[in-house]
Design a protein that fits this description.
This protein is an alpha+beta fold and 166 residues long. It has a single domain, classed as 3-Layer(aba) Sandwich (Aminopeptidase), CATH 3.40.630. Helix content is 34%, strand content 33%. It is built from five helices and seven strands, in the order βααβββαβαββα. The protein has a seven-stranded mixed β-sheet with strand order 1-2-3-4-5-7-6. The radius of gyration is 15 Å and the shape is globular. The termini are close together. The model has no long low-confidence stretch (mean pLDDT 96). The structure holds coenzyme A (COA).
Length: 166
Amino acid sequence: MQEFVIRQMEHKDIDDILQIEELSYGAHHWSRDSFLIELNNKISSYKCILNSENKCVGYMGIWKIIDEAHVTNLSIHPDWRNKKLAQRLLLASLDECYREKIKYITLEVRVSNQKAINLYEKFGFKSLGLRKKYYQDNNEDALIMWSENIFDKKYKELYDRIKRDL
Ligand SMILES: CC(C)(COP(=O)(O)OP(=O)(O)OC[C@H]1O[C@@H](n2cnc3c(N)ncnc32)[C@H](O)[C@@H]1OP(=O)(O)O)[C@@H](O)C(=O)NCCC(=O)NCCS
């Protein structure tokens, strides 16, 4: 099985990341400046997953605000999807939350993005409602999702099960 490494995002990853952004989000992707700002943002934590050639093939970002983490971005290069890499990144971010006593994880996802919704539901995220017309490019609604308390026994069992199955 191919080896992957997860580490904190670095400036040198941004070229790979911008390619994934464009392939994932088309014209409405984040700019180089957005990532540069995020790399200097004290509340941000961005992780990259690297393949055996040391190329960043996916990334995930969170903002950490007191006892809550907000997922800002999660994308996998189309050639590397369906290999459980998004799940690995989510587990790595959960590990960070456990280490830093962050209890809740929240995010917004396009209501049409069923793949991502399936992924978050697999991780026990529940729907909290909609942010109407949240996405400016097409006025699409965002589904607000959250994890409940990840320190609860039931959540920890889910986390352990996903980790074991990877
Ligand atoms: C959503 C995305 C991050 C998933 O990445 P991935 O590495 O392919 O996902 P994984 O292989 O880890 O799969 C995790 C889960 O996602 C869901 N999933 C993945 N591909 C799916 C598909 N084609 N159809 C339905 N559900 C799917 C499943 O629940 C899957 O779990 P399973 O394998 O046990 O069924 C990826 O498709 C992507 O980068 N999309 C574009 C960017 C994006 O939409 N990001 C989310 C923004 S909120």
